[in-house]
Each structure stands twice: as structure tokens, then as C-alpha cells.
Amino acid sequence: MKDIAQLMKQAGALQAKMKDAQARLAASSVTGQAGSGLVVVTLSGAGALTALSIDDSLMQPGDAEALQDLIVAAHAAARQRLEALQAEVMRDAAGPLANMPGFPGF
């Protein structure tokens, strides 16, 4: 019985760490850029697009396709950073459990 009580205590601590990790992610943001910074995208920790910056030099008639490609590339870069941040925060929260077989991957 003592082992079960200890296990329940550890599970509660893990649950609190995961909740804290989710709060930290929700409060975070990441940026991605393309075209050497001509287009910069900011995503919230939840993945919502919160800001988009486009250099004025890209606002030329006939450059729409290039601009569209840069926006997509900047978003992809930001999304990649966000996924890496999410994985890092969750691995930190899970501690040694993150390496257990059957534990959800991050």
C-alpha cells in the first residue's frame, strides 16, 4: 500500500509539472523569418499567428508570388521553433518518465 501512495504522490507531482509546462507554453511566443528577415512571423505558444512583419521593399507590383512564398517559409520556420520549444518544455516537465516506453512522445 505504501508503494501505491508514493506512486499517487508522484503522479500528482507530474500532473502539476505538466500543468505548469502548459502555462509556460501558453505564455511563450516564437518567431520565424524568411528572406534574411524580410518577412517575420510570430506565433503564440498555442500556434496562433500573432504578428506578421513585411519589409517595405517587398511591396512592389508583381512581387505577390515571392511575398507569398516568404510568408509561408517564415510561418514554417516559426512552427518548427514552436514544436521544438513544446517538446523541450514537455520533456523537462516529464523528467525521467519521458524516456519510458509507452510514454507519449513530444
SSE layout and pairing:
Layout: H1 2-26, E1 29-34, E2 39-44, E3 49-54, H2 64-94
Antiparallel strand pairs: 1-2, 2-3
Mind explaining what this structure looks like?
The chain is rod-shaped and about 75 Å long. With 106 residues, it is α+β, with helices and mostly antiparallel strands. The mean pLDDT is 87. The protein has a domain of 66 residues: Ybab, Chain: A (2-Layer Sandwich), CATH 3.30.1310.10. Helix content is 53%, strand content 17%. A hairpin with a 4-residue loop joins strand 1 and strand 2. The two termini are 32 Å apart.
Main attributes of the structure:
106 residues; single chain; alpha+beta
Class inferred from helices and paired strands: alpha+beta
What's the mean pLDDT score? 87
Strand order of the largest sheet: 1-2-3
Computed CA radius of gyration, to the nearest angstrom: 20 Å
Uncertain stretches:
none
Report the order of strands and helices. HEEEH
- The CATH first-level class of the domain at 29-94 comes to Alpha Beta
The CATH fourth-level homologous superfamily of the domain at 29-94: Nucleoid-associated protein YbaB-like domain
Please provide a brief summary of the model:
The chain is of the alpha+beta class and 106 residues long.
